[in-house]
Amino acid sequence: xxxxxxxQKTYSVKVGKGLKTEKQQIRAVKDISLQIExxxxxxxxGINGAGKTTTIKMLxxxxxxxxxxxxxxxxxxxxxxxxxxxxxxxxxxGERMIYWRLTAFENLWYFGxxxxxxxxxxxxxxxxxxxxxxxxxxxxxxxxxxxxxxxQRLQIARGLVNDPEYLFLDEPTIGLDAVVSKExxxxxxxxxxxxxxxxxxxxxxxxxIEELCDYIYLLNDGILIEKGxxxxxxxxxxxxxxxxxxxxxxxxxxxxxxxxxxKSIDPSVIIRQENDGVHINSKDSMSLELSRICTVKGWYxxxxxxxxxxxxxxxxxxxxxx
Amino acid sequence: MRAFxxxxxxEIKKQHKNYFHSKIIYISLFLWPLLSFIxxxxxxxxxxxxxxxxxxxxxxxxxxxxxIGYMVMSFFRxxxxxxxxxxxxxxxGTLELIYLSPTNRAAVxxxxxxxxxxxxxxVMLVFSVFMLILKKEEINANVIPCVVLFLIIxxxxxxxxxxxxxxxxxxxxxxxxxxxxxxxxEIFSGVKVPTELFPVWAKVLxxxxxxxxxxxxxxxxxxxxxxxxxxxxxxFISLIIISILISSIMIIINKVEKHTRMTGNLTLx
Lengths: 322, 269
Hints:
Chain A: Residues 13-246 form the ABC transporter domain. Chain A: InterPro entries: AAA+_ATPase, ABC_transporter-like_ATP-bd, ABC_transporter-like_CS, ABC_transporter_ATP-binding, P-loop_NTPase. The complex is a heterodimer. Chain A has a domain at 240-310: Alpha-Beta Plaits, CATH 3.30.70.100. Chain A contains eleven helices and 14 strands. Chain A has helices spanning 52-59, 81-85, 104-114, 119-132, 148-160, 178-193, 206-212, 230-237, 252-265, 287-297, 311-321; strands spanning 2-17, 20-36, 41-46, 67-72, 75-76, 88-92, 166-170, 198-202, 215-220, 223-228, 241-247, 270-274, 277-282, 301-306. Chain A has a six-stranded mixed sheet with strand order 6-7-8-3-9-10. In chain A, strands 2-1-4-5 form a four-stranded antiparallel sheet. In chain A, helix 6 links the parallel strand 7 (166-170) and strand 8 (198-202). The model of chain A has no long low-confidence stretch (mean pLDDT 87). Chain B is mostly helical. The relative contact order of chain B is 0.14. The chains are: A alpha/beta, B mainly alpha. The A-B interface holds A 11-12, 54, 57, 60-64, 81-83, 85-86, 88-90, 92, 96-99, 101-102, 106, 109-111, 113-116, 158, 162 and B 2-3, 6-7, 9-11, 13-14, 17-18, 21, 92-94, 96-103, 108, 258, 260-264, 266.
């Protein structure tokens, strides 16, 4: 398990002032604690400049934290980065990080050699990876002739070449079309759930985080501001309930009656009629009352359900509050 | 050691595929020193070399004298360019992946230098050997000093390449070294004019380039028939240079990793 406690990172940058340069301290990460268990997908969210990339760089040992504790399976990752490097890999979005003039096979072979993988195992693993990412038959094709999606698939294979226990995915679907993105999400899910890898994912696509992540950490200005599952985050953020009620043959009389009854239960209730039905925003749970009212009044319910806020709404709300 | 060799071989292969993908490159790598060599040769024809104070230059062997200079220079010059090329790994993001892996950094740098060395000199070397055979009456050499010197030059050139690679790793702003080391190395190492004819200030500058000792030793061995004993001072200096280079490389590799982990400049380009 990865345990990071109170990680901080301060960069020292030189700023030109006329002929002189001055050193300035920039605190990219102020205080971040997180955990990643094997078999889980953990999301790292934040607005631009929140410290996501710096956090990933620290967790992958490419950056040394200025302060904090970081252990991976009880190994002190700050003191023994080489031990950590054997267990991890990183996949980033975009078309960099592969050798374009080499073939797909040569790329994987090269990176496999850097991890001192025995040749027979590496050969077998590369075959399996080509199968996994759907690049079978393209092994000996130079990468420069690949489409963006194919390059990204190769990136995934490259990130798995050392069979890492923990995988860091930094915007892995950026710029990819819907089909390839979906495939990638399936791969990620498979890696976590079937191959028991611990995965940290950053993405600007909320749907992706919502679909994949078991747990989410939300960063703002280098600080961890919220954490939890999608549902926990929504519950913490949105204290009111949203319902959609759709009744057959809704008339103004029905709506007026509904408003009167609901206002008597919760004076703060907000009710509005829209094309898809009646939207009800209440302080407390109303599902029982709504079905009871419809039964008593003899209204036929077409649909009635609680509308859970999507992750995007939650993040937007949290962003407004901070 | 097994891991070191695996990385070394993988890096050599990758370098070959990545940078020497086209046969045209071999021609360009050969053509430039060849043109320079021809120009210098005809420039020398305007002087009366019989009056030269340098013991191993005569009117008859000037072509071999210059050829040795250019041949040995190609060992070292190509490495400055390859180190500069190595900095592109930073731009493509692959350098970050190399540092993400637990591999031996020295093996990567050595593999890169060795690949560049062989790829860059092979045509020039073949041409030079052909010319030496053609002008064999001007050659006065013993086999053992030739072999020993060749091995020393190979080791020194590879380490020089590693050293330059390690400096290019240190900072994205190391490109100035390309300007500093390319032409001055050719001028001050005695490729064209022997260093013993230099004024004192230029002699001081020539001391810092390993190429100076490599050229001087090769000329003495091939043109004067010097034995290992005769060139013992040059061998001794070369061994000192090799030790200094190895120590510097190890220190720089260590510092680079610490520095990049502090600054995160591995991804800045």
